[in-house]
Q: What sequence folds into this?
């Protein structure tokens, strides 16, 4: 393929990235912002050229060592839900915008520490960026089958790099606040992650099924290589040890690499997205890994004996088969890996470079200008310059230091160097005692070991052979540190991390830390406690004026935003806007506002410039923190108490409402009683009045009126008896006479007086007896009354020629009586209430109830006295009453009754 | 001869009222519920209607509502006869347009006097 054609493809590809970034920035719809998959895919910025090309080379030449860079992350990612959730919270409340900010803030917000961390990151990552440029350049020449040019201006890679630098500086510096989310960039990165996986799958399928005859074909042919077995086993305990160390290196890297910290922490929009990432990202890596083996061994089979770089098998294979499309796809996949790494690394490093080196050490004075626009422009320009400078530095590095080295070795060295931040990084979130001095000493010592052990031999010797002899002697002097069974990289990783961690731990426990680092230690380690009111947990004492701090804020945020921020602060803490002196909360709040723009260290320096801070001893800090903890506990207790009170008040309200309902029920009851009594009284009174006043009344009519008086008097006395009886039942004043009785006989006794009425209405009566033992224990008189009430009720509501069916059965030691009638259904909402005294259904107030309205209430009381339950259900054609009475409980009741008697 | 409809679902109460009003020269019509009252009203215009409130099928209130809509019945006197003696119920009955609200138990003699006064 010609250079021009491929260059056009690259231009189109970059245009696509611009378009995606542009659309994402422009349409900040919920679909983009709340998308956990964009977040999870952006984490795959981890897979760089080293992963894409390098691991194939490793698989072909060193065997299983290609796996640790995938296995390490897969091992540690499940812990992210704990680790990263905490870091995301810490970063959010402290407006942290970079790895350097995160670590240095914890150790007292030291300017020097953040500068050292920035330098470590630069040293580790710049060669790594150079590595990406190298990959772009080499693959470009491979695809176009042109030779490398030493002239920068004629090297196509130069132009590609310039374009990437333009893209990064444009979209990477859109926001002056570095802690802002860069949706455009992240969406473009997510797309690239998708594409690189997609292209490697295409290549994998091509190699497995088109070049070879399936996976087993490759395996069978490759296994004939003499070194196949050696390459695909751990080679005993020594090989396994190396392998494990490599896993540890990559597990550390996935947490600490600046680009990973940026995508995982700074660009995290919602904590719940981490939950998606912890399964999605390992899955992504697993799919990636599946294709490495067939491509690597397929490549070896195809190019056996030829002098080609196995790292580029992925391009050489499709090219070998003249498949330009797949060749270009693979090239674009590699380009995606490189570009996303370069962009995110350049942005994160530029933020660190500007916020932790350039601004605090050189340009802080320049921001004295009162012009917010000018200051903002300066900050963005510094970042733009930093991005360009970094990419140029990486380019130079590539041209002069790593031309001859493999992708794999440069990548691993970067990982080992960056791993030096691990003790202070993990110490920050897990160890309160970890101190600034310990962290710096450990880091510097670890770094020194990496330099002597890895970087100098790797880069310097390959560049300048002359000093080799002089320094060699020095290396020989340290030969006793060699661990024979570990590879060079594993050895240096072991020693550097060992010394680093040991110094960190020993110094931290033996030297007293500064009050500020201890303050932040509490904030970091106990983040969940402080997340709501983190400003309260910040300890500061001294003299400061709101107006001075406001002036500084205005310089960076502008007047409107500053006013807005202060309003929010005053509202949050209920502070009068006229307050002149600033307290610790305001200091922390202001530092946070500035931190996103100029970094935490510079923010602290600027605020310190207008405040006079009193010294606080570590002891005092610990006391205040203790008090604050007590306050938190006290607050918690108060909250609990208030919740209890609330619950109590709710209970009271419910009780009051119940009382009101009861009161109304009582009124309704009395109303109903009065009404029930008045009807027969009216009949009696009217008849009596006529009999008294009218002497000419015919005999038969007179007789009828007298009969009316008698029957209505009976009705009256029946109602009065029922009321009194129910009252006694309710108050437990009627003793049960529980004896063994035959339930069938009892039923007959109850039924007999009703038979003529049933016959009158032509009602079909049926009985079903499913009892094994008819002799049971109960109070017969009550049971007769119960049957009569239920049957009487059924009789009342069953139409002429309807049906009443009684079923007696046993169920789990219960006597179950069901009485079904074909009467009209009871309204559903009344089913539970029909057992209430004078139950008032919706219409009962105006539609006259039949009977006294006490029968069912009495029935319920009788059933309850036998420890049973009664319910009514609408079923099919009518209504079913179900009564269930336990056998054993009746015995207990009998015992109780006997004892009482 | 004055025509009177007496509506109540209590047979024994109806019996006394029917006897007394007939004796006093009324033309008496007996209804067991509101629907029977409305049936009578299709073919006649009574002078007085005695209405119980709690009746099956159609209660006293609804019956009165229907009566009030019929312009032919504007001179007909409607009297509630009810065992509901709650002031709220009485107020409601009168507000709905009943000419009187008599609570049970009542004196038939006094009831008749009350009716006579209505026509004077």
A:
């Amino acid at each position: 393929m010609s250079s021009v054609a491929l260059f056009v493809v690259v231009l189109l590809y970059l245009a696509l990235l611009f378009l995606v970034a542009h659309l994402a920035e422009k349409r900040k719809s919920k679909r983009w912002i709340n998308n956990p998959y964009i977040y999870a895919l952006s984490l795959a910025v981890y897979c760089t050229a080293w992963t894409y090309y390098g691991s194939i080379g490793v698989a072909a030449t060193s065997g299983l060592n290609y796996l640790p860079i995938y296995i390490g992350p897969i091992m540690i990612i499940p812990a992210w839900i704990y680790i990263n959730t905490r870091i995301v919270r810490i970063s959010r409340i402290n407006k942290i915008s970079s790895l350097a900010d995160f670590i240095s803030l914890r150790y007292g917000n030291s300017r020097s520490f953040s500068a050292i961390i920035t330098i470590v990151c630069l040293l580790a990552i710049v060669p790594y960026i150079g590595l990406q440029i190298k990959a772009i350049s080499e693959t470009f020449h491979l695809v176009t089958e042109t030779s490398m040019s030493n002239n920068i201006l004629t090297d196509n890679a130069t132009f590609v790099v310039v374009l990437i630098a333009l893209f990064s500086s444009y979209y990477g510096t859109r926001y002056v606040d570095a802690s802002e989310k860069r949706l455009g960039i992240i969406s473009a990165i997510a797309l690239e992650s998708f594409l690189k996986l997609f292209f490697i799958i295409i290549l994998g399928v091509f190699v497995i099924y088109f070049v070879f005859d399936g996976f087993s074909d490759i395996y069978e042919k490759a296994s004939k290589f003499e070194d196949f077995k050696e390459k695909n086993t751990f080679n005993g305990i020594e090989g396994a040890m190396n392998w494990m160390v490599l896993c540890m290196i990559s597990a550390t890297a996935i947490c600490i690499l600046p680009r990973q910290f940026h995508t995982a922490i700074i660009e995290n929009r919602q904590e719940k997205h981490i939950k998606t990432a912890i399964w999605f990202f390992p899955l992504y890596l697993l799919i990636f890994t599946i294709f490495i083996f067939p491509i690597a061994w397929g490549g070896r089979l195809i190019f056996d004996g030829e002098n080609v770089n196995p790292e580029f098998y992925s391009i050489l294979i499709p090219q070998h088969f003249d498949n330009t499309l797949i060749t270009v796809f693979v090239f674009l996949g590699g380009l995606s890996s490189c570009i996303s790494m370069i962009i995110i690394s350049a942005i994160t490093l530029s933020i660190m470079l500007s916020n932790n080196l350039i601004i605090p050490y050189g340009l802080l004075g320049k921001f004295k200008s009162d012009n917010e626009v000018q200051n903002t422009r300066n900050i963005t320009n510094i970042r733009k310059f930093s991005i360009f400078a970094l990419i140029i530095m990486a380019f130079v590095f590539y041209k002069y230091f790593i031309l001859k080295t493999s992708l794999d070795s440069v990548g691993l060295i970067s990982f080992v160097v960056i791993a030096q931040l691990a003790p202070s990084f993990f110490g920050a979130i897990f160890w309160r005692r970890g101190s600034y001095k310990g962290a710096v000493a450990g880091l510097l010592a670890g770094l020194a070991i990496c330099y002597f052990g890895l970087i100098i031999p790797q880069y310097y010797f390959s560049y300048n052979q002359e000093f080799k002899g002089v320094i060699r002697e020095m290396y020989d002097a340290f030969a006793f540190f060699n661990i024979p069974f570990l590879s060079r990289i594993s050895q240096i990783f072991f020693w550097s991390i060992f010394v680093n961690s040991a110094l960190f731990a020993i110094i931290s426990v033996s030297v007293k830390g500064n009050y500020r680092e201890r303050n932040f230690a509490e904030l970091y380690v106990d983040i969940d406690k402080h997340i709501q009111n983190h400003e309260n947990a910040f300890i500061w004492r001294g003299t400061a004026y709101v107006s001075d701090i406001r002036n500084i804020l205005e310089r960076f945020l502008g007047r409107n935003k500053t006013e807005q921020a202060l309003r929010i602060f005053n509202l949050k803490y209920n502070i009068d806007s006229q307050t002149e002196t600033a307290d610790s909360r305001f200091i922390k709040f202001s530092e946070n506002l500035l931190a996103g723009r100029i970094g935490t260290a510079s923010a602290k320096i600027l605020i310190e410039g207008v405040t006079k801070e009193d010294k606080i001893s570590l002891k005092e800090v610990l006391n205040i923190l203790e008090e604050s903890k007590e306050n938190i506990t006290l607050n918690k207790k108060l909250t609990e108490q208030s919740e209890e009170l609330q619950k109590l008040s709710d209970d009271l309200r419910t009780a009051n409402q119940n009382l009101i309902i009861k009161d109304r029920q009582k009124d309704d009851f009395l109303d109903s009683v009065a009404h029930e009594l008045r009807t027969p009284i009216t009949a009696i009174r009217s008849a009596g009045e006529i009999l008294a006043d009218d002497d000419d009344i015919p005999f038969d009519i007179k007789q009828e009126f007298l009969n009316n008086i008698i029957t209505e008097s009976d009705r009256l006395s029946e109602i009065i008896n029922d009321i009194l009886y129910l009252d006694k039942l309710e108050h437990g004043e009627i003793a049960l006479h529980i004896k063994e009785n035959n339930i069938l006989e009892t039923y007959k006794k109850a039924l007999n007086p009703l038979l003529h009425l049933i016959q009158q209405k032509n009602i079909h009566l049926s009985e079903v007896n499913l009892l094994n033992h008819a002799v049971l224990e109960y109070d017969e008189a009550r049971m007769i009354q119960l049957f009569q009430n239920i049957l009487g009720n059924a009789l009342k509501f069953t139409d002429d020629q309807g049906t009443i069916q009684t079923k007696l059965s046993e169920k789990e030691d219960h006597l179950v009586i069901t009485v079904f009638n074909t009467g009209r259904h009871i309204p559903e909402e009344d089913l539970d209430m029909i057992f209430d005294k004078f139950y008032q259904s919706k219409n009962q107030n105006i539609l006259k109830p039949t009977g006294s309205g006490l029968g069912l209430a009495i029935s319920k009381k009788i059933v309850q006295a036998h420890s049973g339950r009664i319910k009514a259900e609408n079923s099919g054609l009518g209504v079913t009453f179900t009564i269930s009475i336990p056998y054993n409980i009746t015995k207990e009741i009998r015992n109780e009754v006997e004892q009482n008697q | 001869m004055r025509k009177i409809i007496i509506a109540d679902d209590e047979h024994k109460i109806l019996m006394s009222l029917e006897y007394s009003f007939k004796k006093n020269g009324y033309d008496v019509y007996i209804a067991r519920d509101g629907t029977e009252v409305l049936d009578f009203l299709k073919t006649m215009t009574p002078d007085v209607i005695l209405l119980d409130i709690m009746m099956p099928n159609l209660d006293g209130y609804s019956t009165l509502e229907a009566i009030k809509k019929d312009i032919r019945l504007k001179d007909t006197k409607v009297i509630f006869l009810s065992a509901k003696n709650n002031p709220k119920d009485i107020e409601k009955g009168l507000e709905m347009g009943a000419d009187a609200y008599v609570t049970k138990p009542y004196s038939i003699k006094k009831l008749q006097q009350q009716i006579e006064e209505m026509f004077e």
Summary: The radius of gyration of chain A is 44 Å. Chain A has a mean pLDDT of 83. Strands of chain A lie at 542-543, 612-613, 738-742, 764-769, 775-779, 803-811, 814-821, 869-875, 878-886. The first helix of chain A runs from residue 3 to 26.
